[in-house]
Every structure is written in structure tokens, then in C-alpha cells.
Design brief:
This is DUF2164 domain-containing protein. InterPro entries: DUF2164. It comes from Virgibacillus xinjiangensis. This protein has 84 residues and is mainly alpha-helical. The chain has one domain. It is 74% helix and 0% strand. It has helices at residues 7-25, 31-44, 46-74. Helix 1 (7-25) packs across helix 2. It is rod-shaped.
Length: 84
């Protein structure tokens, strides 16, 4: 899995990473270090997050299909058997 980020998204995330390291660890890191950290996170953690998103989407679709099935079943007309 390869996560595609626009250049604007990468730049924003790199700024956020740099801010995080400064605010949480009082450590200034450069663009290269923040970019490398982003690449590592995307490569190592990205698949876990992606898979969770897929599972969430599957659960939502299953629920919607169940609701749709119930709606369709509610349209069925009762069948009366005439007995002579």
C-alpha cells in the first residue's frame, strides 16, 4: 500500500511534525528529519490505519445492506391461499 499525499499535504504534515517535536520535546528538527519521520510513519503505521478504515467501511456497508434487505422485505405482500 502506498499512501499518496499531495505536496501541500506533505508540507502541512511536516510542519505539524516539526511543531510537535518542538512543543512536546523542546527539540527542533529540520525538514529532512520531519520528512523522513513522515515517510516512516506512512510506511510502518499507514497500513494498520488503512486496514482499520477498510474494516469500518465494510461494517458500515454490511449494516446498510441489512437495513436495505429489511426495507425490501417489508414491501412483500402477504399471500392468501384460497381454500374451497
Amino acid at each position: 500500500m502506498y499512501l499518496r499525499l499531495s505536496q501541500e499535504q506533505k508540507e502541512r504534515i511536516i510542519r505539524d511534525i516539526k511543531d510537535y517535536f518542538f512543543e512536546e520535546h523542546a527539540e527542533e528538527i529540520g525538514e529532512l528529519a520531519a520528512g523522513n519521520f513522515l515517510d516512516f510513519m506512512v510506511k510502518e503505521i499507514g497500513p494498520y490505519l488503512y486496514n482499520e478504515g477498510i474494516h469500518d467501511a465494510r461494517d458500515m456497508l454490511e449494516q446498510k445492506l441489512m437495513n436495505l434487505d429489511e426495507d425490501v422485505q417489508s414491501l412483500e405482500k402477504p399471500v392468501h391461499h384460497n381454500r374451497d
